[in-house]
Specification:
The complex is a heterodimer of chains A (271) and B (540).
Chain A (H helix, E strand, L loop, with lengths): L2 H4 L5 H27 L9 H9 L32 H10 L4 H4 L17 H13 L7 H6 L3 H13 L16 H4 L11 H4 L16 H13 L9 H8 L2 H13 L3 H6 L1
Helix pairs in contact in A: 2-3, 4-8, 6-8, 11-12, 11-13
Chain B lengths: L4 H28 L10 H36 L6 H23 L13 E2 L2 H31 L7 H32 L5 E2 L1 H29 L1 H4 L7 H14 L16 H13 L1 H21 L17 H24 L1 H7 L3 H31 L6 H27 L20 H28 L24 H4 L2 H24 L5 E2 L1 E2 L4
Parallel strand pairs in B: 1-4
Antiparallel strand pairs in B: 2-3
Classes of the chains: A mainly alpha (271), B mainly alpha (540).
The structure holds protoporphyrin IX containing FE and copper (II) ion.
């Protein structure tokens, strides 16, 4: 009983085992790679080899079509969870100097009293993306755009790192804390709305989604309406527009009022 | 001849302890996303639980059962002390260490990636390292099974390898090879990203690697059950194996065709060519063959037992079966669940029908019926059968055992039938929350509630199972005699070399893996621009 007696065509089991296996393989390959591709009258193949390549999943060069001109610019920023991770002290210092010109609206401590967003403790990736979008024109705002157009890449990164570094001070929105509304913790599954809290804090945080707790209620409402109407369109793959369009005005009011009333420490409790 | 009883008991106890924990999590998951639970407002907790439940039930529990049973088979079937006991303990402790290492990040919410890993989602590196340790521990077992068989062959040149050991080693080879897919995914793709050495990952390739593991792992889970069908049940009910060769051929077929079919898990994925999907689908159809052979052979073996007990007539013999014997009961329940589960499987394996149930609750209903039902109920039976031989004490309360098996069967049917149903209605799987207040899904509330009740029946049965085994540790001592496996009607004196060794079939298994996976893997691995940024669990 040795492998010499086993792996030989004189051994009936070997003949049958290998034979049947090979036969099945060949038959299924012919069917899968030749018969079935040609059985689809709506697909045209140049020749058999073309059909085989297609069935095997060989990457095909797409016909060279030029992308249609976009009426408005779209965001070109790519974010990963490593964007601007671990900034240096110098970067933060440079950012602090640059940030002096932002203080008039966003507050000297990064907390606004003018219904502009609070930036203190905001995620670096978020500020980074918005500044890039303001600069490219993917997002526009009469006040903000002129500040952004002249920023260099380095300056944007430094500003983002600086604001992310600032502590999250209690915001100037002295409403009493509201209970979590359904839209924030459940979303609206049947309308395809994931819970706000799954990305924006209160449940979890996701890359590129701003921290909303303590932001101005008026500002958040304005942004949700801008997303819903398509006036603001710098969200990647319409992530926010799809949600905002499905939200009712009541949803918008509830979410904005809730987030505005939250103190900053709630955020840290989750992560 | 069972010598290393402590080793085997350690494997079984650890298996059933982690099973108990994961079962509790499962029942909780069922409850919390059903209309009778109040939503806990934090989906993250659900996914933590789901990751722990899936990781334990998929990787740790069945592996430990297969290992403990494998050691028992090696000693009892070969009548030979286990060679490499120290290595066996090392494997055991690796699994303990790996499980602890994996569970800590899960509990901390740092690895809520589910047991299928879901790249580009990336969790804490220790979770993956823990899983790797579990697999490495089980590979030691694979090596030991092979070594022990070799030692035995030296001492018994040319003799037929006892069926239980032949099947056991086939199962271990299947596991060794099928685990390679997930190991490649973890070591080459996921762990470098989790450790921070890279921050992009080819998620499509990762899914193909995982599919390499995902089908045959199911047959690895199934092996102890099939071994019990063939080599324990006939003996326990006083019958004989209808055909020894048929049994060997079934296990050989599992070895050859369980592997090259995993892409039926990627039917909906764009990165695999349709031709390969077809080949995998066709081979998937073949894998029904060994199961049909088994059902036939076991029914025939059971009929032999019935006729030996005086059963008469075309179907009258069924009444003559020892229905109060837990093994008989477990087998019958297992077959019923296997039948329903198998019928569901036919739907999953066909490209077109799969589209309607893909990623719905149907899938979870299906594998709970087959795996949690048909397979795990035989794990129970194996434990009941081995226990007196391992502890030297009798399991006295046969009524309790029967109740436990009945409850598991009923619980599984009550849980999984509505589970399938809501899947057909389109309810997605892996969701933490459903708003049953919404008129669109309100009609499904009843089905989901039933499933949750079934879950609690299962939990009750699981607790009973552990109580029975624990009480068995303190029962009065008996001499259970030597542990025996069933004999065939015609116990073979010689077996053709192909049916007595695994080499040819392992070669075919590897060959088919190369033909069916080689090109898709190379194609994805060598194409540039197929990676996406990793998404880190808990990252901002
Ligand atoms: C013996 C048995 C069992 C085994 C082997 C088992 C195995 C598994 C596995 C592998 C998963 C997949 C995890 C994932 O999708 O990531 C899973 C999911 C799940 N199991 Fe179990 N399980 C068992 C028993 C139970 C029981 C008794 C219950 C309920 C009482 C249960 C409830 C669940 C639930 C709710 C899910 C999640 C389904 C989803 O949301 O997609 N399991 N189980
Ligand atoms: Cu499969």
């Amino acid at each position: 009983m040795s492998t010499r007696d086993l792996f030989t065509f004189r051994n009936g089991h070997f003949r049958i085992g290998v034979g049947i296996t090979a036969a099945i393989l060949i038959v299924t390959a012919i069917v899968g790679f030749i018969v079935l591709p040609f059985a689809q009258p709506w697909v045209q193949f140049a020749d058999v080899w073309d059909a085989i390549c297609s069935a095997a999943g060989v990457p095909q060069r797409a016909a060279s079509v030029t992308a249609p001109e976009q009426a408005k610019r779209l965001s070109e920023v790519v974010l990963t969870s490593n964007t601007l991770a671990r900034p240096s002290q110098e970067a933060i210092g440079r950012g602090a100097t640059l940030a002096q010109r932002c203080a008039i609206c966003h507050g000297p401590t990064g907390v606004s009293r003018a219904d502009s967003p609070n930036l203190a403790g905001q995620y670096a990736a978020v500020i980074y993306k918005q500044l890039h979008d303001f600069r490219s024109g993917a997002r526009t705002n009469a006040v903000m755009s002129p500040f952004a157009v002249n920023l260099t890449d380095q300056e944007i990164a430094d500003l983002s790192n600086y604001y992310a570094y600032l502590p999250r001070l209690p915001a100037y929105h002295p409403t009493p804390q509201l209970p979590k509304p359904n839209i924030v913790i459940y979303g609206a599954p049947m309308r395809g709305i994931a819970p706000c809290g799954a990305c924006h804090g209160s449940l979890d945080n996701k890359t590129g989604s701003p921290w909303l707790e303590g932001q101005s209620e008026a500002y958040m409402k304005a942004q949700l309406h801008a997303f819903a109407s398509g006036e603001r369109r710098n969200d990647i793959s319409q992530q926010m527009r799809n949600i905002a369009r499905a939200m009712t005005p009541q949803d918008i009011d509830a979410a904005a009022a809730y987030y505005a009333s939250q103190p900053p420490d709630v955020v840290k409790a989750v992560d | 001849m069972l010598v290393n009883k402590k080793l085997i008991l350690a494997h079984f106890w650890l298996a059933f302890a982690v099973f108990g924990i994961a079962l509790t999590l499962g029942a909780w998951q069922m409850f919390i996303r059903s209309p009778i639970g109040t939503w806990l407002s934090n989906p993250e907790l659900y996914y933590r639980s789901l990751t722990a439940h899936g990781t334990v039930m998929g990787y740790v529990f069945p592996t430990l059962v297969a290992m403990g049973f494998g050691y028992a088979i090696s000693e009892a079937a070969l009548q030979q002390r286990l060679v490499g006991v120290r290595w066996a303990w090392a494997g055991f402790w690796l699994i303990v260490a790996g499980s602890i290492m994996a569970v800590i990040p899960i509990a901390l919410g740092r690895a809520s990636v589910l047991y299928t890993f879901y790249p580009p989602l990336i969790g804490n590196v220790f979770y993956y390292l823990g899983v790797v340790l579990v697999v490495v521990g089980s590979w030691i077992w694979v090596a030991l099974m092979s070594v022990n068989l070799r030692v035995w062959r030296k001492a018994h040149p040319g003799a037929p390898v006892p069926l239980a050991m032949f099947a056991n080693v086939a199962g271990s080879y299947l596991w060794a090879w099928t685990a390679v897919g997930a190991a490649l995914e973890l070591l080459l793709q996921i762990i470098p990203v989790a450790a921070g050495l890279k921050n992009t990952i080819d998620a499509g390739l990762a899914r193909v690697f995982f599919s390499w593991t995902l089908h045959a792992i199911v047959y690895f889970w199934l092996m102890p059950t099939y071994i019990a069908y063939y080599t324990i049940v006939p003996r326990a009910i006083g019958g004989r194996i209808y055909s020894d060769s048929m049994a060997r051929i079934s296990f050989i077929l599992f070895l050859v065709v369980a592997m090259p079919i995993g892409m039926h898990h990627t039917f909906a994925d764009p990165q695999v060519g349709a031709g390969f999907k077809f080949i995998h689908s066709a081979f998937t159809a073949l894998v029904a063959l060994p199961t049909l052979l088994t059902v036939f052979t076991i029914c025939a073996s059971v009929e032999i037992a019935a006729r030996l007990r005086g059963g008469r007539g075309m179907f009258g013999w069924i009444r003559a079966l020892p229905w109060d014997n837990p093994m008989m009961l477990a087998l019958a329940f297992s077959f019923v669940m296997l039948g329903f589960g198998g019928a569901g499987g036919l739907i999953n394996m066909s490209y077109q029908l799969d589209a309607s149930i893909h990623n719905t609750q149907w899938i979870t209903g299906h594998f709970h019926l087959i795996f949690g039902g048909a397979i795990v109920i035989m794990y129970f039976a194996i434990a009941f059968d081995l226990w007196p031989h391992l502890t030297g004490r009798e399991l006295i309360d046969v009524r309790l055992i029967r109740t436990q098996l009945w409850l598991w069967f009923i619980g599984m049917i009550v849980t999984t039938f509505p589970w399938h149903w809501v899947g057909i209605l389109g309810m997605p799987r892996r969701m933490a929350y459903f708003d049953f207040g919404d008129p669109a899904i309100a009609p499904q509330a009843l089905s989901v509630t039933l499933s949750a009740i079934g879950g609690f029946i299962l939990l009750a049965s699981g607790i009973m199972f552990i109580v029975i085994l624990a009480r068995g540790m303190r029962a009065p001592q008996v001499d259970a005699g030597p542990y025996r496996f069933a004999l065939a009607v015609h116990q073979p004196a010689t077996v053709p070399v192909a049916l007595n060794t695994h080499a040819l079939w392992v070669a075919l298994m590897i060959g088919l893996t190369l033909t069916n996976y080689g090109y898709p893997i190379l194609n994805l691995a060598l194409s540039s621009g197929t990676s996406v940024p990793a998404v880190y669990v808990g990252a901002q």
